[in-house]
Amino acid sequence: MSAVRAVEAAGFTHLVWIPDSHLGPWEADFPSSSLAVVRPTREGEAVGVAAGLLLGGARPLVAIQCTGLFEAGDAVRNAVYDMGLPVKLLVGVRGWRSHLAGPTVDTCPRFAEPFVKAWGLPFDWHDPFAAPPGEAAAKLGALAAAGRAAVLLWAEP
Asked: What is the pLDDT of residues 29-81, one digit of tens each?
């Protein structure tokens, strides 16, 4: 099952998506998808758009890269803690697989998990390169079912 189909199967209605690196190829599956794809200009805007969609009764998933999560910190704080919204984020962690293989100059994998922990957000990891079939769908389903804001960290090369 493609990642886009797994997002649909989890019950998300909208994908608020900034196509960085590994997430970019998902676009090929959009024409046959029931997801409404929203393309904000910045990651902080993506969180704000998702907040509005949640208030309107939709079930959005924000899909961004880790550096974008860092940029969106204030929007996450406002939507999750000030407004109490159950924002769901799929965060591509650029360079994660390289980081596991040894030291790299990319600091994104070093800070992604501590950043999510600092915000007190529940999270899980998914590595599409090592996961058994069906794991992405299961993890996206768990993310969608979480009763509060939550994050799925998505390992990238």
From this structure: 888 999 999 999 999 999 999 999 999 999 999 999 999 999 999 999 999 99
pTM: 0.94
- Give the CATH number of the domain where residue 118 resides: 3.40.50.970
Please state the φ and ψ torsions of residue 147, each to the nearest 5 degrees.
-80, 5
Q: Residue 37, class by beta-carbon neighbours within 10 Å (0-12 exposed, 13-18 middle, 19+ buried)?
A: middle
Q: Domains in the chain: how many in total?
A: 1
Contacts of residue 24, defined as CB under 8 A and 6 or more positions apart, other chains included, come to none
Q: Could you tell me the residue range of the domain that residue 19 belongs to?
A: 3-155
CB 3 within 8 A of CB 137: no
